[in-house]
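Workshop exercise sheet. Pairs work together: one partner reads the sequence aloud, the other fills in the structure field after running the prediction. Swap roles for the next sheet.
Pair: D.N. / O.F.
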Amino acid sequence: MLRNILLTLTNQHKTILMKIFFSLALIVISFNTMAHRGEYLSIEQVEISNSETGKITYSFKIENITNTPFENVQIDFLKNGKSIQSHFFKLISGDKKFIDDHFTFNEKDINPETDLIQIEITKIFNKTHDWGGWDSPTILKQTNSVFSEFYVDAPWRMKKTDGSGNDLPIPLHFFLHDADQIIGFTLKVDYINIKIKSASSPAFGSILTYNTIPTNTFNNMFSCPSINDPGLDIKAFDVTALTPTSSYTMDFDSESDFFDDYVSVPNAFWYFNFNIPASDLIGLDDIIDIEVTVNYANTLITTDDVIRMRIFRSNDDIPSQANYYRGDTHLHSVYTQNDAELGLPLCATKEAAKLIGLDWITTTDHTSDFDNYGNFNINTNWTALQNEVTSLNANDNSLIYIAGQEVATTNSENKLVHMLAYPSYNSPTVFPFLGDGYGDLIATGVNIDSVVSQLVSADGFSYCAHPFATEDALPLVPVNGGIWNLGDAGFPVNGNSFPGIGGNIICNNTGVNSDILDASSNKLIKDAIKGGQIWNVRSNIEVSGLTGYDNDPWDVTNIGAAMNQVDTSLHSFHHKRLKQGQEVINHINQLGLTAKNANNSIQNWKMYYSAGSDAHGSFNSNNTDNLGGTGSINNNAVGKLNTLAYCPNGMGTNGSEVLKALYNGHISMSDGPLITMGISLDGNNTSNEILMGEDSVLDVNSQSTIFVNFNYTTTPEFGDFTKFTFIVGTPTGEIKKELSLTASSGDILKSYNLMDLLDSVFGVGNTPINQYLYVRSEIETYVDYSATTNEHRTTHDYFHSYTNPVWITWGQPTGIEEEQSNNLVVFPNPATNQLVIKTTNPSEFSTYSLFNNLGQLITQNKINNNFEFIDVSHLSKGFYNLIIYQENNAPIVKKIIKQ
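Structure field:
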C-alpha cells in the first residue's frame, strides 16, 4: 500500500549504518547523496552548483558499470515525481567508464531543500525500467533506505505458555538487507549481543550467553535460516559460522583478517531466527523489553547498531470461536521490495504470526515489485513465491499461506489504486500473475476492468484495497495515486462530508465511470469484486520521525522519545477510516437491496467487508515513512487487524476453505474481540443454517422457529464488552439497535427470535414482508491501561469486531423451479454451504439423492425430519440434480445451483 502522502508502511527495526560510505563511492558533493545503482549504468558524483545568473545546475557522471555499449539510453530529471527534463543518448560507448552530463534550471524552479529531486535512468535499449539513479537527500527516513539495513524483529504479542503450561521461547528475526549495495567494501558482521528485561525495570540485565551449553542445544535455538539462492542473491546462514562465548551471544568467526574474525555478507539478503529460550524468561514480567547490539568488523563503521523492542505476553489465547480461523488478508513478504518498502521472509513471518495468534495469511505483495529483484523476471519471482508458500504449507499446516497479489491498477481517472486478488478456492495454488511490473515510478498499463477479466478467467476474486476513506488515497507523487471511485449520484459527491462519521469525500466522482458498479442491467457489481478491505493499518500510538527513534519506537530506556496516543478525532485514525469505508459499502448494499427487490434475478448484488494489517514484515512496530520527509513510527504490525473465516471443515489444503469463506462473505472483522452471527431455522439455537454473507427467503409462516444467534468473545487482554449493536439495512439506510450485555467478558452466546427482534426495530407488525433487507452486528470492548501506562504508552484502548451482513426476505421460500409440492420446500437455491429440505409431513417421503451433472451420486439419505440438511460446502460450483422419492407418487426432481 502507498497511502496518502506516505510511501511506505513498514517497520522492522533497522540500522542507520551505511550513511557513512559515500566517500568510498567517489561521490563529490557537499551533502549525502542517495544513489541506487543499477546493474549496467549508474548515476554518480552528483554536484549541485548555483551561478550568478540565477541558474542551478546538477552535474553528474554516468558510470558504465559493465564497460558494455548501450544504445537508446534515456536519463530523466524528476521533480516531485514528475519528469521535467530528459537527455537521450543514442549510444553510450563501452570504452569510457564515466560520461559527464548535467541538467540546468532557473533557480526559482528548483528548491533543493524541499523538492524531491531524482536523476533516473529510465530507458536502456529503449526499454522502460528502473535501471538505477540518484535521489536527493530530502528522502530522510525510508524503511528501505540507501545502501544496506539490518533489521531485528519480534512478535508484538504472544501466548505466554504452550498447552502444557510451559513458557514459550521468543523468536527474534535478524534480516540483513541490501548488503550488496554497499560501495567500496563488503559488510562484515562481527558479533551480536542480546539483553532482556521486564518493561517495568529501568535497566537491562547481562548479555545472554550460551557458551556453557552443548553445541547442539545452542544450534537448535536457530530457525528459518536463509538458504543459498543465487537467483535471488540470498546468502545462506550457516550456524557453524558463529560461536557462543562468555562475552557475546553470537560471535561470528568463519572468516578473519589481520584485525578480527567475522562473517562477510556481500549479498542482497541474509537472515535467520534466534529463539530466546524460555529458561531466560523466568522471573520476568509479561511485558518484556529486548535489546540487540550488532557489531561490525569493518574499521569504517565506528558505532554499533542498537535495536530495541517490546513484547506483550498473554496468559490467554487471542479470542477465538469454534470453526472460525483468524487471518490477515493484506500482508507483504520479502517479495515486496522497492525503493522505499520491503517485507520479511515467509518462514520468519510464519513463526511470528503463529505466536501472535493467526491461522492464515494471504500474501499480497505488490505486482509492481516482482521485477525489482533476483533476475528481474516477473514470472520467475512469482513462481518462486508460489512454490515457497506451497512448501511451507506442506511442512506445517498450523498456519496456512495463500499466495495472492496486491495488483497495481489504474482506476476510471487513470490513477493508481490497489486491488487484493485471490485465487480460486477450487485451486489455491494455480493463479496467474495479474500485473505488468509497473505501478511505481512508471505507470502501469493494467486497469480495473482488465484485472477483472483475468480474474474471471482464472476463477479468482478480489477485494478493493483500502478503497474509500479520506486518507486512503495513494500518493499523487510519485505514483500518480488515486482512490476507488464509487461513481453513484445517490451518495454525496466529492467535496461533501461522509453523512455518518464525517470527513471529506474523495471517492465519488460522478463525472467518470464507477470502478465498482457494473454498467449492465443484470448485475450491480463488477464480476470478481467480492468486497472491500476497508479496515487497514491499525495504529493507536505513534511518534514523529523527527523525534522518535525507529530502532527503539517503544523508548524502552525512557529517554522521552516514545510513541504516544494518536488524536482519535482525526479522520486518519484507523477506526474512522474503517467507518468511512463502511458507509460506502453500506450504500452499495442498499443499492443491491433495491435492485434485488425490483429484479430477483439480479447478479452480484452483495458486497462484503474485510480487514488486514497491510504490514510490510512488521512483527513489532511500523515505520510510516514519507518519500520526501521524516515520516512517523507507529504500532501497526502483522495481525493487528484480522479477518475471521468460517471454515467448518477446517482451513482446507493450501487454504481452500479460507478462500471459500472470503468468496462467500462468511467472515467477520476484528482487532481483538470477536463477534459472529447466523440464523437458525429450526429453533435449535446451537447451529446456524444461514451464515454471514448468505441470502435467504425465510418462511413467514415459520417465524416462531427462526432465531438469530450471536456469539461474541473477549479476553482480559482486549478488555470488557461495552457495546453490542444490532443493525438492520434497508434500501433507504441502516437502523441501529443497542442490545443488552449480560456479561462483561468471556465467550457469550445470545439468541433472539428474529421476527421479534426485527419488530423491535420496525415496530410490531411493521417488519417488511417480501422485501429484502440485511442484518449485521458489532461489538466493542474497552481496556484500561492506567496501571501500565508507561508500558503501553497510552492510558486505554477500544477494540471492535464487525460481522458481515446476512441478507433475508420474509416470504414463501422456493427453489429454482416453481413447481413445488405443497408439502415440500428446497432452499436456498443457489446454495453455498447447506441445502435444506423442508417438509410438513416427512412420512410422505422416503429418501433423497443428490447427483452431479455427470449422473454420479454425491450423497443420499433417508427423510425422517421436517428439516433435512445436506452439506454442499465441499462441492464445486455448478448444477446438481436433487431427486426426492415419495412413498406413493413419482419422484420430485429439483435442479440445484451450487455457488
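Discussion prompt: Residues 574-598 form the longest helix (25 residues). What would you look at next?
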